[in-house]
Each structure stands twice: as C-alpha cells, then as structure tokens.
Amino acid sequence: MSHLRSSTPRISGEILTLTLVACAAAAWWLTSMLSADMTSDMSSDMSGEMGDTKTVMALGPFLVAWTLMMAAMMLPAVTPVVRLYQRAAAAGKVAPTGWFVTAYLIVWALTGLPAYLLWRELAMPLQDGEGWALRLAGATLVFAGAYQLTPLKRACLRHCRSPMSYFMRLRGSLERPVGAFRAGLLHAGYCCGCCVALMLVLVATAAMNPWWAVLIAVGVFVERNLRWGATFATWLGVALLGLGTVVVLSPTLLSDLI
C-alpha cells in the first residue's frame, strides 16, 4: 500500500507533463494559423486604399493570439515548476494545481496589453521595411542583450531555476486556493522579469513571427532548465548585443531575417 501511495505522484506527474506538452503543441499549431491570418490581413491592408487607416487586428483577437503564443512558448519551460507544485498537491499539502496554473495564464494574457500597443505601431512599418522601424528593432535587440546581463535578470532567473526555495518560503499559504493563486501570480511575475526583454524582441523585431517565437522559446527553456542555463543566458545577451548593433548600423539585415 505504501508503495502505491509513493508512486501516485510520479504517475500524476507524467500525466501532467503529457497534458502540458499536448497543450503547448496545440497552442503552437493555433499560433501558426493565427500568424498566417495576421500576415494575410496586413497584406490586404497594404493593397487597399491609401486612405484606409483601420487597425490590423483588434485588441481582443490579438490577446487571444498572444496568450496562445505565450502558452506555446512558456509551457515547456515552466513544466518542471508546475510538476513540483503538483507533487505537493497530489499529497494534499497544497491547493489544487489549477489555481497555480490559472494565475500564470492570467499574467501571460495581461502582458499582451503593452505588446499590442507596440505591435500595432510597428507591424506595418516592419512589413514595409521602413528604416526607422528597423533601427528601432535593432535598438530593441541591444536593450534585450544588455538586460540579459543585469542583476535584475539574474535575480529573476535564479527564482525560475530554483523553485523549491520559493515554495518553501510560501508553504504555509499554499494550502488555501487564494494563497496558491497569489503564489502563481508572483512566480509568473518572476517569469516575466526573466523574459520581458525577449518578449519585447519578439514583438519589435518580427511582428510575432512564429519562427522567432520558436527560437526564443528554446532559449527560455535552456536558460531555465539546463545545468549551464545561467551561462547560456549571459552568452545570449552578448549575442543579442552584437546582432542589435549590426541591425542598427545596417537595418536592411533585419528585413532578410523577418
């Protein structure tokens, strides 16, 4: 009987992992479909009348697309954290996992609000290859690279890479749903602090190009979950600084990349 009790969290963890992977795969597929629609809409706008000033995409549909893309990118990276929480939930020590995960989804959706404002202004100029937009994208790459090297980035990454200490500090409040939800909000905040510059790169350089999203998702997963992830984060910052400098000096390079 004790053997069965000890194996239950492991089996539940495997099911949870498969579920998160399936959700991420579905989100990637939906993101690719929405990205194709967005590209088609922009092409239609560019071929329309010169006086047409309609928005490429309304806020509501954008937030849906953004949240799906964030889920696709981030679910693989946060799976170890969610599994750690789920083990405690399976043992009855904390509130159900859904409260913790829902908080993450809400934070991801809210990050779409500033992303929408930036995307609305840059999507068409980037597609048209306007020099000011391409240089701004290059400056964003430089900013992202510099942010990767800051103490704030390192502090947020440390929390993301070592969730056990985070849960230990909050274990007394995790038994209640409101405490679990608050813990999810706070840890998602560390997650955003870790990835905010990379998300900015995604919008400012590629207008949510799914292939850039894949590259950023791989980078986020590596720096959070692999043993040498912290070192990788530093080298990623150096690479972004170099690429951004080149793009600022030669903005047409970015047109070839997007």
Could you estimate the helical fraction of the residues in percent? over 70%
How many angstroms separate the termini? 57 Å
Structural class: mainly alpha
Number of H- or I-type helical stretches: 11
Low-confidence stretches: 1-11, 45-55
Shape, principal axes of CA atoms:
globular
- Strand composition percent: under 5%
Q: Multimeric state of these chains?
A: single chain
Q: Can you summarize the main beta sheet?
A: none
Mean pLDDT: 79
SSE order, as H and E?
HHHHHHHHHHH
Task: Kindly describe this structure.
With 258 residues, the chain is an all-alpha fold. It is 84% helix and 0% strand. It has eleven helices and no strands. The chain is globular and about 55 Å long. Helix 3 packs parallel to helix 8 and helix 5 crosses helix 8. It has helices at 2-46, 59-90, 97-110, 112-128, 131-148, 151-161, 163-170, 177-206, 210-225, 229-249, 252-257.
In short:
The protein is about 85% helix and about 0% strand. The chain has 11 helices and no strands. The longest helix has about 45 residues, at about 1-45.
SSE layout:
Blueprint: H1 2-46, H2 59-90, H3 97-110, H4 112-128, H5 131-148, H6 151-161, H7 163-170, H8 177-206, H9 210-225, H10 229-249, H11 252-257
Helix pairs in contact: 1-2, 2-3, 2-4, 2-9, 3-8, 4-8, 5-8, 5-10, 6-8, 8-9, 9-10
List keywords for this structure.
258 residues, mainly alpha, globular
